[in-house]
Structure formats: C-alpha cells, structure tokens
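Late entry, zinc ion complex.
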Amino acid sequence: MTVPVNPIAVHAFNPGPMTGPGNTTWLIPGRVPTLIDAGTGEPQHLDALEAALAGSRLAQVLVTHSHADHASGAEAIAQRMPHVRFLKMPWPEHDAAWHVRWEPLTDGDVVPAGDGVLSAVYTPGHSPDHLCFWSEEGRLLFCGDLASKGSTVVIPPSHGGDVSAYLASLDRILVLAPAKMLPAHGPVIDHPVELLREYIAHRALREQQVLAALRIGITDPTQMVARIYPTLIAPLVPVARESVLAHLLKLEKEGRATRNGDQWRLAGE
Ligand SMILES: [Zn+2]
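Prediction complete; structure with ligand written out below:
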C-alpha cells in the first residue's frame, strides 16, 4: 500500500524584492525525510528545518530549479547536515554556482520521499531545469515556480525562460489535475485547475496585445511595454520588457514575427 505524503511548510526567511515575504520550502517527514527546495541558507531557515525534523535526520533535498532562492541554500544545509543528498535536473552552468554534489533527476524519475514516493515532472518555461514533484496518492503537486496564487510567473528569456515551453508545462499539469499545488511562493493553491486555466488565458491575452502592437507598427519591445502596461512603475519596466520579449520569441518560433536586431515586425510585412 502506498501512503500519501504529509508536507510541513518551512519558511526560508529570505524576504526581498523578488521573493516577497520569502520562499516556502516543504518538509516531508517519514522514513525518508525529504525537503523540497533549499532556500538561501538563512540560519533561521536551518533552525526551523531542524525544529520541523524533530530529531530525525534529513535524507535529501529535491530542488525544483537552480534559481538562487531555491538552490543557493544547499551549501549551508550541507555544512550543517553533511550526510544530506541533493537532487535536481541538471542545468550545469547554473548549478556550478552552488557548491554541493548534485545528483541528476530527469522527467519521470520516482524518488522515495517521506513514507511515500514522488515523481519528477519536467516543467520548463520559467527556467530550463524546472521540475515539479508529484504525489499521486494525495494528488499533490510541489510546483516550485510554475504557479503562485495572486500573481503570474516571470518568464525571463534572457535567463533561459521560454513561453512556449511554459504553456506546454501548464497544459501538462492541467492533465494531471492536481487536487492541491504547494508553491515556493505564496499560499497553498487549493483550486489548481482554475488557476492554470487563468494563466493560460492570461498568456493568450498578452500574445494578442503583442500582436496588436506589431499590427499598428510598434517595433520596439520597450514601446510595447508602454502600451501594454500603461501604469507600470519604472522599476518594473525591465521585468515587463522580458515578458513582452518572451512572447515575441514565441511568435518568432512559430513563424509569426521576425526581427532585425531589436526591432520586431509581423512575419510577411
Ligand atoms: Zn525561479
């Protein structure tokens, strides 16, 4: 008989402009105590982790992707708990920044965790190495940065982000139809299917806005930002520009837009 995992939220104590109140890491207690994501190595995080472990030894950390707020804490965990294993999908250029021995995970790998198992689900888009971890018994998905309730997810093309891949990942998770998603940022997602559908609709709307801008002859992504996000505050313009660029790159891949340097136009014009 298989047993559902019963995760405990362990706050990573890393508030900041990109992480809001800070990340959530998830401890799955049981025979194979497992942590999802490493945080950033804050001593308070390690203290909270030890308290949640209640005397048991952490066996492994499964990392959703190589961004600093998910992976950089591996070193501090390894220092305090030298026996712990670290597993993630390889993204060699990035993983090298965090000095632990990473063991490779790939799509479909099944890993014992707590008193049950988790399967790795490859969900690129936000980053090229992104994995979600799926507990079939509880229909529970540890979703990393795939989704975050109350906001959308940044897809940064200059850092390996890819809107087409992200949309395919959302579709893939829709098919799984999780009962709950446990994200790295924000509250537990109780109605994942609804949120995933909203995300897909949101991206479709953005694409329409980018196409509309191209159609009236706007060629510069920064000018598209001014049109699509008219009330945006200046510090967020670079993030919005990345998002517009991500959509332009998707359109280029589909043969619907072309570029000359930084200037974009509809294909065939
Ligand atoms: Zn991330």
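The pocket of zinc ion is lined by residues 65, 67, 126-127, 145 (CB under 6 Å). Will revisit in the morning.
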